[in-house]
Amino acid sequence: MMGPPPPRAGLDVRGAAEAFNAELAAQLTGATAHAQYVMAGLGATAMLPVISDAQILLPGVFAQLTVPSFEYPRIDAPPALWLIGALPPGPPTVWQPPSWWPELSQRRVVALTQGTVADHDLTDLVQPALDALADEGVLVVAGLGGREIVAGELRVPSNARAVERAC
């Protein structure tokens, strides 16, 4: 059920996805066997798929906290998989807008983040995007995924703002 790797020239995407899924299934053998044992104890007789697939395939509905634009296009997504968006955050207890907040209404805004897992190296996406957008007539807000802003770590052009969190 995992998505394919990002396409690259010469990459067999289907083959790479199949290899990844096979490796994941092998790593989850113990968890899948334990789930099978528990389900058998409850009277289930059918064999479970790999536990990472079972959680999506077995229930009538699997509500995933994401939106389609964050997912790879899938023609094989099970009908039980519903992409429901994010849960609304709780109200902040104290929030002070940053000094640049009024700029948000003065020009188009580009929200930039590298993701959640890959935030350890901002040169993968954040820095090249900041460099590429430096001369554009937009305000770039780069969310650093909760990372502390370290002086000199990023070249932040005059049309960009780096923030520890994007929300």
Offer a concise description of the structure.
With 167 residues, the chain is of the alpha/beta class. It contains 4 helices and 5 strands.
Query: What would the principal axes of the Cα set say about the shape?
Result: elongated
- DSSP helical segment count: 4
Give the low-confidence spans.
none
The beta-strand count equals 5
Our measurement of the CA-to-CA distance between the termini, rounded to an integer number of angstroms, reads 29 Å
Portion of residues in beta strands equals 5-15%
Q: Would you tell me the structural class of the helices and strands? A: alpha/beta
User: What are the secondary-structure elements, in order, as H or E?
Assistant: HHHEEEHEE
Sheet with most strands: strand arrangement? 3-4-5
Radius of gyration: 21 Å
Helix content: 25-40%
Describe this structure in words.
The chain is α/β, with parallel strands linked by helices and 167 residues long. The chain has four helices and five strands; from the N terminus they run αααβββαββ. It has helices spanning 13-27, 29-41, 51-57, 126-133, and strands at residues 62-64, 81-83, 109-113, 139-143, 160-163. The strands form two sheets. Strands 3-4-5 form a three-stranded parallel β-sheet, covered by helices on one side. Strands 1-2 form a two-stranded parallel sheet. α4 links the parallel β3 and β4 (139-143). The chain is elongated and about 65 Å long. The mean pLDDT is 86.
